[in-house]
Fold:
Amino acid sequence: MPPHPETWLRVTPDGLFCEPGGFFVDPVRPVERAVITHGHSDHARPGHAHVLATKETLAIMRARMGEDRAGATQQAHPYGETLTINGVKLWLRPAGHVLGSAQVCLEWQGARAVISGDYKRRHDATCAPFEPERCDVFVTEATFALPVFTHPPAGQEIARLLRSVALFPERTHVIGCYALGKAQRLISLLREAGWDQPIPLHGALMKLCTLYEELGVQLGPLTQATVAGKERLAGAIVLAPPSAIADRWARRLAEPIPCLASGWMRVRQRARQGGVELPMVISDHADWPELLATCTEVEAQEVWVTHGREEALIHALAQRGIRGRALHLIGRGEGEEE
Structure:
C-alpha cells in the first residue's frame, strides 16, 4: 500500500517539508532547497540556497528581491515536465493565480499530493489557467472560504467602472490594486472591454508591468501617473497601490474617485473603512463555490487547508465525504496580494 502523504510531507516551523525529497514548498525562512509556487511575498522569500520554480516566477523574484537574494542557484522548471528528486517525482501545473504561478505535484512510492499555492478558476489573459491534477491529498488555500464570498464576473465589475467613468468624465478614477498580478489583470480586463486609452500607473506598479511585457504579456499603452498633470488625468483610469488611493499622492489627481479591486470588497464595511467610493469585487483567489468544486474535481480523499477560513471549508468538505485537515502554516496570507 502506498505511504500516506502525512508520513512524508511534514509541517515544520520553516514550512511544508517533503522529507524524502529534502526540499520545502514555499518556506518562510531561508532553507537549502525550496520549491516556490509564485512570486507573492508570503510565498516567495529571499535567501534560499537553491530555488526551483517556473521561469516567470524566478524572473519576478529577481525583479522584486534582486538577483543575489532570489536563490543562490535558480532552476527554471516548465509546466508538465517531471523531475525526480531523491525518488520523489515532481512536476508543476498552472495555478491561474498570477503569471508563472504553479501547483506543486509530488508522487512518492505511488502516493500523490498536490500543493496548490494560491489559485483562481476565472479567466485571466495574463497567466496560464488552472489545471486540476488528480491526487490522494490536495493542499489548498482557503482565503475566501465562506459562502458569502461568491465573486461576480470580473467583466461585470469592469462595466460598472466604465459606467462611472462615463458619468463623471471630469474626474479621475484611481483603482487600488497590488503590483503583482492584480494590476496586470485589471489592465487586461480593461483592454478586453475596449478601453484603448493609455493607462497611467503609479510608479510602484511600472516595474512589474514592464516585466510582464518582457515575458510576453501585452498590456497596451501605459504611462506614469506621477509625471502627468492633473488636468491631463481628468476622465482617466489610474492604477496605484491600495495604500496610495487615500494618500496625498491621490489628491494631485482631478477630483479622484477612490476605487479598490479585491475579493474583500464583497464586505461593505471594508470598503467604507477604506474610504472606497467604488468597490470592485475582483479577486485572484478562488471563491467559495470554486474551492468546493476544485476539491471535488481533483478526486482527493483528503484535503489539507493551509490558510484562510479553514474550519468552514473543512466542515463543508466533510458533508461531501472528504476528510479535511488544517495545517496552520505560519506566514500564509500575510503578503500583499489580498
About this structure: The chain has two domains: 5-148+285-326, 154-280.
